[in-house]
Amino acid sequence: MDEQARKKELAAKAAVDYVIENEYLGVGTGTTVSFFIAALQQSGKKVKACVSSSDATTRQLLAFGFPVVELNEIQGRIPVYVDGCDEIDANFNMIKGGGAALTGEKIVAQASDKFVCIADDTKLVKQLGAFALPLEVLPKAVEQIKKSMEGIRGVPKVRECITDYGNNIIDVSGLQIQDPLKLEEAINQLPGLVTCGIFAKRGADVLIVGSSDGIKITTKKNKFSFKK
Questions:
Q1: Is the pTM of this model over 0.85?
Q2: Which is catalytic among the residues 9, 87, 105, 136?
Q3: Is 225 within a domain?
Q4: Phi-psi region of 47 (alpha: psi -120 to 50; beta: other; left: phi over 0)
Q5: In which domain, by residue range, is 141 found?
Q6: Has 185 been annotated as catalytic?
Q7: Which residues are annotated as a binding site for substrate?
Q8: Which residues form the active site (predicted)?
Q9: Which residues are annotated as a binding site?
């Protein structure tokens, strides 16, 4: 296991402490989440069922013996949602969608009371935008939204993948995201845009960071600064 993977595993294992037994659990997508699912199984903790953010996560959860239900099947809210990120700033705004699951992730995050973000320390940034911003887009709107992104000095590129919902992903590089919430709301107004990969309106509540020095756990109430 390389150093970055080890850091991800440290954060993932620490997140198991936030899982509430015999309750619904929201589960995100990505390599760090894969470590979390394995750690949860090893812990022996039992959940009522998992609400998955993607088909890939559903397959992994079922393979590890966890029951999975659709969000529409449950009443009330999900107590805890655990997911990773591609970038996160000191205000817990994030860029997500590197795994093309941003729509499912945003839906489950919005339905959850507590968002626990697990990440290695390479994901910490002073300002979002070094990681290309993913947008999930209806196929017929791809060219129109590419032009809109060029209009704000972004460099759009269509990713060679199709999402769980049959849509395209446009990755937009070159953005300097000074006001994540404002940009998220603006992009979300574009016709044909399904989901913007900025998670500012529904950011993280708890951040668990794995580093070479171990783990650091912070919340929105305990502000801190990043070196990058």
A1: yes
A2: 105
A3: no
A4: beta
A5: 133-197
A6: no
A7: 29-32, 83-86, 96-99, 123
A8: 105
A9: 29-32, 83-86, 96-99, 123
